[in-house]
Design a protein that fits this description.
Length: 67
């Protein structure tokens, strides 16, 4: 898991991805520090999840899109 899921969260998600996954809104955080508070809140949210929850979220987010 640490070889796939954690690097994906750290480097493979955009601000928009994190907003969708966490339900947090970057506009609710200060923009003066380039939304660092938003990213920190997302990381706190992510770190509160179990390994099973993280894997489920990763699978949902990386699943091929149906057309």
């Amino acid at each position: 898991m640490s070889d796939t899921v954690e690097p994906w969260w750290k480097d493979g998600t955009t601000e928009e991805d994190r907003e969708i996954i966490t339900g947090l809104n970057p506009e609710n955080f200060s923009s003066k520090d380039d939304y660092r508070a938003f990213r920190d809140a997302c990381d706190m949210w992510w770190n509160s999840k179990t390994n099973g929850e993280k894997i489920r979220l990763w699978r949902q987010a990386t699943a091929p899109k149906e057309e």
